[in-house]
Amino acid sequence: xxxxxxxxxxxxxxxxxxxxxxxxxxxxxxxxxxxxxxxxxxxxxxxxxxxxxxxxxxxxxxxxxxxxxxxxxxxxxxxxxxxxxxxxxxxxxxxxxxxxxxxxxxxxxxxxxxxxxxxxxxxxxxxxxxxxxxxxxxxxxxxxxxxxxxxxxxxxxxxxxxxxxxxxxxxxxxxxxxxxxxxxxxxxxxxxxxxxxxxxxxxxxxxxxxxxxxxxxxxxxxxxxxxxxxxxxxxxxxxxxxxxxxxxxxxxxxxxxxxxxxxxxxxxxxxxxxxxxxxxxxxxxxxxxxxxxxxxxxxxxxxxxxxxxxxxxxxxxxxxxxxxxxxxxxxxxxxxxxxxxxxxxxxxxxxxxxxxxxxxxxxxxxxxxxxxxxxxxxxxxxxxxxxxxxxxxxxxxxxxxxxxxxxxxxxxxxxxxxxxxxxxxxxxxxxxxxxxxxxxxxxxxxxxxxxxxxxxxxxxxxxxxxxxxxxxxxxxxxxxxxxxxxxxxxxxxxxxxxxxxxxxxxxxxxxxxxxxxxxxxxxxxxxxx
Amino acid sequence: xxxxxxxxxxxxxxxxxxxxxxxxxxxxxxxxxxxxxxxxxxxxxxxxxxxxxxxxxxxxxxxxxxxxxxxxxxxxxxxxxxxxxxxxxxxxxxxxxxxxxxxxxxxxxxxxxxxxxxxxxxxxxxxxxxxxxxxxxxxxxxxxxxxxxxxxxxxxxxxxxxxxxxxxxxxxxxxxxxxxxxxxxxxxxxxxxxxxxxxxxxxxxxxxxxxxxxxxxxxxxxxxxxxxxxxxxxxxxxxxxxxxxxxxxxxxxxxxxxxxxxxxxxxxxxxxxxxxxxxxxxxxxxxxxxxxxxxxxxxxxxxxxxxxxxxxxxxxxxxxxxxxxxxxxxxxxxxxxxxxxxxxxxxxxxxxxxxxxxxxxxxxxxxxxxxxxxxxxxxxxxxxxxxxxxxxxxxxxxxxxxxxxxxxxxxxxxxxxxxxxxxxxxxxxxxxxxxxxxxxxxxxxxxxxxxxxxxxxxxxxxxxxxxxxxxxxxxxxxxxxxxxxxxxxxxxxxxxxxxxxxxxxxxxxxxxxxxxxxxxxxxxxxxxx
Lengths: 529, 529
Prior knowledge:
homodimer; 529 residues; alpha/beta; Barwin-like endoglucanases; Aldehyde Oxidoreductase, domain 3; 4-stranded antiparallel sheet; 19 helices; Nuc_phospho_transferase (chains A, B); Thym_Pase_Put (chains A, B); glycosyltransferase (chains A, B); EC 2.4.2.4 (chains A, B)
């Protein structure tokens, strides 16, 4: 941190319009005198110093050496969009650069790479450096791999979670809308179509509970709750707007991305995603840090279990459940974990518009509504309602069902939509479609969540809200040869072609004999305890 | 690998003058129709397809989204220098892009991240993908961390080494200069000033052995053998030139960087370096793959041991030695490992010019020459000479000494320098200097190799050939308060100031009582067996 600036080598800051995602990149011309004198090389890490009205500012950045005057000249210091925003000064401002000392926590990172156990202070130092963008992508990847699988013990996961909370913003509902429990639900993800939040939130709010829900947009899935909700209403709400909405309706369904609740986690996810790493310790710290930062006091957590879900066996699910319970317990978050059937998608629609249609059908008590989505939402809402001290154990489900069937949940949802801002130009289902058909007669004995998600993404979801697919058959359903299994919807011809090509290689649906169908949590199968 | 191109969305290739080191980066404008239609995001991995005279070409690249028309327009596909060179077509050429399937070996990478053992074919697939630049920096970092420490067993290290050899070029001396052993020496590094190669090579060549030595430039050290040799002669020789020189003088001292001997290793090093990871398995595979690719049949390997050397204890040194021996044995490379004293720098000079002066003093049998450098070079040369079947075990040292003292080594070195091209404009020692002094009376009881190296680098080495430092005191030497410990040399005022600031914070030399000096390989110390 204490690198010495080069006092005589002041450079003029230039914003370079390149989105390097979460990494600060500095672009210096090969002929820049500082590069030559100080012996910087490509991928060197540099520390950039400047000052604005508030005082001195500095960031760390990775160096890319440039040979093109149109990008930066020899007396300029180019900054990627991320770096420019973080430094917080205007173009043309003077800055100096120096060789960066490694971030202070690098010694702790090396201890973890070498398989050692880290203490509370070491994890806090790493997370502070991560949140301040002092780690390069390479260092972030090293941290993510070194803490992969069960390489963090439960104390370390607790300390990681605390560290993530400490560097983020914390929403204070008590100060804004009064004391009392703030209930929340979360699913660890991986199941397409699983839009229970949009049902659970209006139900528990109708019961009188505070449920200010923030959700994510899709990262690798065809739709996140925020994407699906956005079909119906505005979801980009600042905290002040959320407070107003929650005061009026006890609930909201907002995108959490602007809330800066766990900035270190957002940065770590930017490397976990391309590596497809989602280890138990990282998952627990990520989810619980965001929930606690969002001010939740009570949480129902859904862990779907299935051969193509994130959690593939009951052994794994139980282990993950204990880890969540241990960390939540120490952070005084009331947690109820529900293990659910993750063998196939939930509901029929996959993709923002198609999922929103499922949700509205359930709220409208349409007999054609997908029953699996309805049942699962009622089960989860029931567990949340049982956080109410006045509700007896076991009564939550019936209360939730009454709220849904009486139309109070629909009324509550409409109130939330109106408060957030009802979407006037509601997108519609993509006009182009293609039906994927069964190759043979039999029963559906497996549906691959990952494959289905990929087909829906190639069709354009979630960027194209009306794209995705509609599941026409479910596990155990009999099919004839040539009968449609699902219908792909797209808006663009190229997207439809992509999705169709993938589905024709492997639809993700397996046809076989009914006795080959793995039973939920059956022993001897993948689900065995 | 089988991603589908977007046939209708052909883009015009543009070379973007940004050096992203070893990573392929594609720059696409945010308004590019392909980005919008296919939903690419920053850091997505894309596959780029085109064709040239030789047929179809494709590369994988990481995507940076650009908002500046001066860098790329909406109908262009910008490529970083590395990506442009790899694709091998001209600017304006048409290309299509598609979502990249992960490289075929990613499943194996995940198995390794999860702590599993990889087979020969899996390691070969990973190294092929690495050499073809199909891995992003994040994936490279994941591989490096997952194979860190002793997480590769010795079979895996052997297979990694074989895989690295298989993807590189191999030098064929037998076909060029006749059969017979090709001897080499290598030091695992980390000891400043340790320029024994420039003495060992002329000595063994004078004995009649073939010793075509390729060396590296400094990466994190103040000078590599190639940097120091370059003070005296041209070191950038193609293979054809090396063959001519070796035919004439039986030896050369060339830079190995252009030889493409282990391209996968060169790429892995680009992430190992910023992570400061240098694990046993990676070290063995890196060194042995390059030696075998360079055509060596016999190798003396120097492993310095000391508290600030790469290897810090005899236990660690012995373990590393066995691993080198195991892999070399299976690859039919005759290997003799020498464990040496790595408690302090070797010689007096640190930095290209200062080290070259030490080397020439030893060759000239100058009584003022640094005796530690002379002794170590003779010891290593002796071990190499004993590869000669006609030399009795134990006689090598005396033969080496005779060659040095008779002036034959100097004559041989002059012949090598003349053959490579004697440098006419030999650089001189930096004119600016500063003496770092002992704070108190006592004896020098520790010299920190890493600290000394950093001071020399800040002074400008190796980019400024005359920069570095001259050690005036060595372990065990008595000093008075205020007596100079070393003298920093620099060419630029700012560099001198940098180096001086660092040295004044901590010189790297510890003064104490003589009985506190750790003895080489003494038991009970860091060196205990």
